[in-house]
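Changelog note: in this version the structure field was regenerated for every chain. One regenerated record is shown below for reference.
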Amino acid sequence: MHEEPLHLFPAEAEPGAPSLREQLKAYTGVEVEGGLCPVCALRLETEFGGDPERFPIVRVQFSESRRVGIGTFAPSDPKSMSTEQLTGGVNFKLLETYGSDDDPRALDWAGEFSKANRGVLECIEFLKNPKEFLVEFLTLSQERQFKVPKFGFIDADIVLLAHTNESEFRQRMADPTNEALRSRLYTIPVPYNVRLTDEARIYTKLLGQSDHDFHIDPNAIEAASAIAVLTRLTPYPNLSPVEKLHLYDGKETGEFKLNQLPEIRKQSAREGLDGIDPRFVIDALSRAVAETEVEQAASGRRPCLTAVMAIRALRNSIERSHQIGDEAKKTYLALLTEARQEIDRQLKDEVRKAFVPAFADTAQHLLENYLNHCEAYCGKEKVTDPITGEERDPDEKLLRGVEEMIGVSENAKDGFRSGVLMRIGMWLRKGRPLAYNSDEQLGRAIEAYLFEEMKDIVRITVSKRSPDTQHAERLNEVIKVLCDQRGYCPTCSSELLDYVGALLNR
């Protein structure tokens, strides 16, 4: 076993003299605990005459694959399990060489305790082990020793990492016969992820490893991630689940700011310990992909996982699951409905962002109009009508109509307008061409304002089953923007327009 070299210093000393360990502690401050394993103790006496300075020392590198300093142990069939998997046992080939099973050189030293000495031992599904195995772990954790038959206790210095699921943990800890085990555990809850961006990375990675050739709608993974995370969040006063979802993802919402997160988390101790897990979600998405592969095979089109398909797949999986209780199902489905409202808003936003570039000239004209009136307002000046030439006050209705699209309040309008002029001025000083979306905030406001103004046009365009030439050209231009700039494919862009058209016609 990967022995501690300082164990070579004997704890015994000549009468009236300090031991080498005591001298070491006085010189370095290091206290040595434990003794040599039986093999090292035998070699020290027989090969090196009891002189620790002659005993060779080598440096090792921890490696799980080579079982050096990192051990793993998982329960298997109780009938075939043996505690020798932990402690090691007799090597019968070596028994022929050394002639006795109480010779330490006849041991195989292949147990996980030996391999993990001075390192880490991971205990997979720890509480599924039989009781006789748990006794071995109890001894090791308390006395830092383990027992091999026909030998005394062997010292070991191991960090034991055990994991299990929460329900099994609570069930076993409620049993009074497990008091000794309970007193030796330092429990660390490991919750599911509650950050939307990180959850999306999980599914992006797992779906990317699939052998199937399919396209993923840019909103599909985020939709599934939002539903998964919402089921894991706990209620907080005056903060809706969707608002909490965005706040945890680093986006301030409503009256809550990011600096309030520590207090919110403090009052959400069980957050992430309940809810649906990533495996549940990825299974639902995989089934949705398999279904769309069958549907698209006849048409020869590439399968595509859309946001609507992801939502539908999760709803079906929740409703059919036998592992989710009835009350939890009601809660999850209510959260799914709330998430869908947010996702619907995002999908309409996608169409808006695709329609506005098709009307880029209109957006650019609105930008210039807004800036003229904004500059006049901030400079307390009049605006000259380009047609009549008369001077009049800045168009407050236009200014507020744009600003309200991104939630700028009446009290905050002056600061917003000054900030816009300052940012636009810096942009122009750098010699950059000015577009309607050069300023991010103002660009979003202009897009939203135009989309609201064009809502009827959008609704008519995306809802026509047999569009005329003009509407067909608009649709083709919107689909081109969705495919070239927004990451959609022809299949999911068409489905997106159909879906948003149905939303707008409600």
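Spot check on this record: The chain has 22 helices and nine strands. Residues 359 and 450 are 9 Å apart (CA to CA).
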